[in-house]
Amino acid sequence: MIMNKFKYQMVIQWSEEDNCFLVGFPDFPGQQWRTHGTTYEEAVTQGIEVLESLVMAYEISGEPLPKPSIVCTVV
């Protein structure tokens, strides 16, 4: 599965205006929101599918994948 190979942030945010959860990938340039879901679970599922499609599109085009952001937490 692609999630084991690449570690990209997936941002999921509720939108009152759209009445759904919006999904974005900050590490990938372009539009802020890439997909959505009416439930949080649906948004996650849609997000995984979009991430797989993004990676495939980069690989097909020969374009290098963006570096994943690293979040450091202090305990």
Model description:
The chain has one domain (2-61). 35% of the residues lie in helices and 17% in strands. The protein is built from two helices and three strands. Strands 1-2-3 form a three-stranded antiparallel beta sheet, covered by helices on one side. Strand 1 (11-15) and strand 2 (20-24) form a beta hairpin. This is HicB-like antitoxin of toxin-antitoxin system domain-containing protein.
Could you provide a short overview of the structure?
This protein is an alpha+beta fold and 75 residues long.
Beginning-to-end CA distance, first to last residue = 30 Å
Number of helices: 2
What fraction, in percent, of the residue positions are helical? 25-40%
Order of strands across the biggest sheet?
Answer: 1-2-3
Molecular shape: globular
Estimated share of beta-strand residues: 15-25%
Mean pLDDT: 89
Biggest pleated sheet: 3 strands, antiparallel
Q: Report low-confidence residues grouped into runs of 5 or more.
A: none
Helix-strand sequence: HEEEH
* Rounded radius of gyration (Å): 13 Å
For the secondary structure, the number of strands is 3
Number of domains: 1
Overall structural class, as computed from helix and strand content, comes to alpha+beta
Protein name: HicB-like antitoxin of toxin-antitoxin system domain-containing protein
Organism: Gloeomargarita lithophora Alchichica-D10
InterPro entries: TTHA1013/TTHA0281-like
